[in-house]
């Protein structure tokens, strides 16, 4: 267990880890749960897979510490590594990334539903469930932005840094994902 | 908190004696990402240089003597191989710049405009330095259709429509011979050429130079072409003003036959 002071920034922690590997536990500690959640949402994986994936991600973070760009937030950088790792993991396994939306968290669905509430649309619980089902079928590029925006609470700039796409493209993808969902939902109204 | 994961990671770091990869490795890698983009911009610059050369020597000011419009003449003047290459390498440049460290932040339009601008500026400088002409000459040796000048010779190889182009073989006081792109040898008479044009012709055109000739075919003597005016195929680079002095025009000094031929 690491005892890094809470006010030490991620970037400082990264810098300390370069001097002494023991400090790296602080980074693992801060991001383990977040990345665990992210990996489970992005990928259809077993608990064992998640552990292996997380271990590999953190080892990659450690060996790439010198590649950290201080112009980015450390959070965006570590999510980017996780995102790229998941893609390459799936390529190796030769399967498509599919979400475990079937048992997706309720709070997440509320986040997605908020998107519609903002447009004065009200959805029943049943409808929220339907949204969840359709999220499964969204193309991966749309699902990734939805997950980061509504599940991980990342802003457009952070999503742009994580997925390495222009902020305008983030907005476009979110819009398209939304429209696609709306279209599917309209069939059930 | 999963102590187990932290322990596993620490163990792996220690067991495999893992160390953060050196900053230098990443710096070199990040710099190397620029190489394809820069290479593509340079190829794009060569393309632009050749395109300017093609347009500059496309004989656009003679379009009124051709049976094609100004726009068609301009399109015909473009060396297509460079249009294709410029487009291809432009796309490669955009793709390559996008994968550089901060390239993803820029819109495709910004990258397109940026790389296009860089190619145009470099290409313009290259053209003034004579690179466009040099490349075109080399390309012509490979295939005339690939070069701007080669293409011009094809466009201008239509004696029955009053235009002829090719390489000067023999030069005499009152005639010279031209080998056109089809390999045919033409005897070109200068008796219809006005005095001013003759002087310019003599000073600018030598054996083995390429010329474009406007005139008419002799209906009685085979492979004979009466020139109304002659200009070198490669006249000058942008900015040189002596070109103005050899601008051909239908003038009263020309013979009636010529005036009629040029007005057709």
Any key phrases for this structure?
heterodimer, A: 189 residues, mainly alpha, 9 helices, 69% helix, B: 264 residues, alpha+beta, 5 strands, rod-shaped
Describe the protein's architecture and organization.
The complex is a heterodimer of chains A (189) and B (264). Chain A is mainly α. Helix content of chain A is 69%, strand content 0%. Chain A has helices at 10-19, 24-42, 47-63, 74-93, 106-117, 125-137, 140-151, 156-163, 167-186. In chain A, helix 2 crosses helix 4, helix 5 packs across helix 6 and helix 8 crosses helix 9 (167-186). The radius of gyration of chain A is 18 Å and the shape is globular. By secondary structure, chain B is of the alpha+beta class. Chain B contains 10 helices and 5 strands; from the N terminus they run H-H-H-H-H-H-H-H-E-E-E-H-E-E-H. Helices cover 50% and strands 14% of the residues of chain B. Residues 237-251 of chain B have low confidence and may be disordered. In chain B, helix 3 runs antiparallel to helix 5 (80-98).
């Amino acid at each position: 267990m690491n005892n890094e002071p809470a006010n030490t920034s991620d970037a400082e922690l990264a810098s300390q880890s370069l001097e002494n590997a023991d400090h790296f536990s602080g980074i693992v500690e801060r991001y383990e749960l977040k990345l665990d959640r992210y990996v489970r949402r992005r990928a259809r994986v077993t608990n064992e897979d998640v552990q292996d994936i997380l271990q590999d991600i953190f080892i990659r973070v450690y060996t790439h510490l010198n590649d950290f760009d201080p112009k980015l937030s450390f959070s965006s950088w570590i999510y980017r590594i996780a995102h790229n790792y998941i893609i390459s993991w799936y390529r190796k396994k030769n399967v498509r990334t599919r979400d475990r939306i079937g048992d997706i968290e309720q709070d997440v669905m509320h986040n997605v539903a908020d998107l519609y509430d903002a447009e004065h649309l009200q959805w029943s619980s049943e409808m929220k469930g339907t949204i969840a089902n359709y999220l499964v079928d969204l193309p991966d590029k749309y699902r990734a932005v939805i997950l980061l925006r509504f599940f991980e609470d990342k802003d457009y700039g952070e999503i742009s840094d994580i997925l390495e796409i222009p902020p305008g493209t983030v907005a476009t993808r979110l819009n398209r994902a939304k429209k696609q969902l709306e279209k599917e939902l309209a069939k059930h109204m | 908190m999963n102590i187990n994961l932290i322990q596993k990671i620490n163990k792996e770091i220690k067991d495999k004696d893992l160390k953060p990869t050196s900053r230098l490795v990443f710096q070199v890698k990040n710099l190397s990402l620029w190489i394809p983009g820069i290479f593509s911009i340079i190829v794009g610059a060569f393309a632009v240089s050749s395109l300017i050369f093609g347009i500059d020597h496309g004989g656009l000011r003679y379009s009124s003597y051709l049976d094609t419009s100004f726009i068609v003449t301009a399109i015909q003047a473009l060396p297509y191989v460079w249009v294709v290459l410029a487009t291809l390498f432009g796309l490669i440049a955009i793709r390559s710049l996008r994968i550089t460290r901060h390239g993803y932040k820029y819109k495709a339009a910004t990258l397109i405009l940026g790389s296009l601008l860089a190619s145009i500026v470099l290409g313009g400088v290259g053209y003034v330095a004579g690179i466009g002409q040099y490349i075109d000459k080399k390309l012509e040796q490979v295939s005339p259709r690939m070069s701007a000048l080669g293409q011009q010779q094809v466009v201008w190889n239509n004696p029955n429509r009053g235009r002829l182009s090719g390489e000067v073989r023999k030069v005499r006081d009152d005639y010279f011979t031209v080998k056109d792109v089809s390999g045919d040898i033409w005897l070109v008479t200068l008796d219809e050429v006005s005095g001013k044009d003759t002087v310019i012709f003599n000073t600018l055109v030598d054996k083995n130079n390429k010329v474009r000739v406007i005139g008419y075919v002799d209906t009685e003597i085979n492979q004979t072409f009466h020139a109304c005016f002659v200009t070198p195929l490669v006249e000058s680079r942008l900015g040189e003003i002596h070109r103005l002095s050899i601008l051909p025009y239908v003038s009263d000094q020309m013979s009636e036959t010529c005036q009629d031929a040029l007005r057709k």
